[in-house]
Amino acid sequence: MKKKKWFGAAVSGGVAGAVNGLFGAGGGMVLVPALERLTTLEERQLFSTSVAIILPLCLTSLTVYGLHGDLPWATAWPYLIGSGLGGVCAGLWGKYIPTKWLHKILGVLILWGGIRQFF
Fold it and tell me: How far, rounded to the nearest angstrom, does the alpha carbon of residue 9 sit from its chain's CA centroid?
């Protein structure tokens, strides 16, 4: 990887990690555009690569929050189970959804979340 692209990838990863750690989500919103710009991956590969990168970020954040005693496991478990099942389903069936629709769905979710946070 060229030095400029390597630096861009490292900065993008750092921003994604910070966003993910601060807000509990959103690292993929940084990574997918960065991967699109800095690599030659196909659209489906962008999303799966982003998920593969986000996993260690989430584990790191989980460890830090857990070490600081800020993790209510009793509350988290049901969500963890449900999101794991949702992730499996999306991984299996997501390839049948056109990437054009995936972008639109993601855009609506981001807008909805932004509007909720604003008000």
Answer: 15
| pTM across the whole model | 0.67
- Residue 93 in tokens: 């069936």
Query: Mean pLDDT of successive 10-residue segments in the chain (119 residues)?
Result: 78 86 79 86 84 84 86 88 89 85 84 87
Helices (H), 24-119: 27-38, 43-67, 73-93, 99-118
Considering only CA atoms, give the Rg of the chain: 16
Closest CA to 62 of 97, 24, 98: 24
CA-nearest of 89, 103, 100, 90 to 28 is: 103
Question: How much is the pLDDT for 115?
Answer: 92
Rounded to 10°, the helix 3-23/27-38 angle is 170
Distance in angstroms (rounded) separating the CA atoms of residues 1 and 6: 6
